[in-house]
Amino acid sequence: MLTVLATLQNVLRVALFWMALAMAVIAATDWLVRTRRVNPFGGIARFLRRYVDPLLAPVERRVVRAGGLPASAPWWGLAAIVIGGLLLLALLDFLGRIVAGLATGLSTGPSGLLSLMVSWGFGLLQIAILVRVVASWLPISPFSPWIRWSFVLSEPVLRPLRRIIPLFGAIDITPIVAFFLVSILQRLVVGMLT
After folding, report:
1. Which residues contact 77 (CB under 8 A, 6 or more apart)?
2. At CA 8, angle to CA 120 and CA 13, rounded to 5?
3. Which tens digits make up the pLDDT trace of 39-57?
4. Which are the contacts of 193, defined by CB distance < 8 A and separation ≥ 6?
C-alpha cells in the first residue's frame, strides 16, 4: 500500500509539473495574443481561440464575475493547477503517513496502537488550533459548521492559558503557546506509552 502511494505521488509530481509548465506557456502565449503583442489574427492566435479558449471559458467566466480581466484567466488557471496540485500531493503525503503509522501501530501490538491513537488525538488538537488561527484571519463565523469543530476542540486548552498569558496589544499569542505545549505534551505522553 505504501509503495503504491509513493509511486502515485511520484507520477503525480511529474504529471503536475508538466501540466503547470504547459499551462505557463499557454498563459504567456494567450496573454501575448490578448494584449496584442502577438498578431491576434495569426496562426498561434487562431489555435488558441479554437482549442485553448473553450477550455479556459469556465475560468474566464469566474474571473469576470469576480471583477477581474478576461486576459488574466490563463494565469488564474495556472494558479489553480499549481495550488490544486500542491494540495493533492499534500493529501497523498498525509494519507501515506496515516497508513505508515497505522501499519507501525498494528505491528507493535496494543501498546503501539494506543500510542498511535494518542498521537493522532494530539495531532487533531494541533490541527484544530491551526484552523482556529487561520479562521480568525478570515471573515468566517466561528459558528460555521466548517470551523465550529476547531473551537469546540481547542477552547478547553486555550481558555485556561488565556487567564495566564496576557495580550500583547491586539495580538493573542495563546494559540502559539498552546500549539507548542500540546506538541511537548504529545512527545512526553507518546514517549511514556512506547
Report:
1. 23, 27, 56, 59
2. 100
3. 888 898 899 889 988 988 8
4. 111, 114, 115, 118
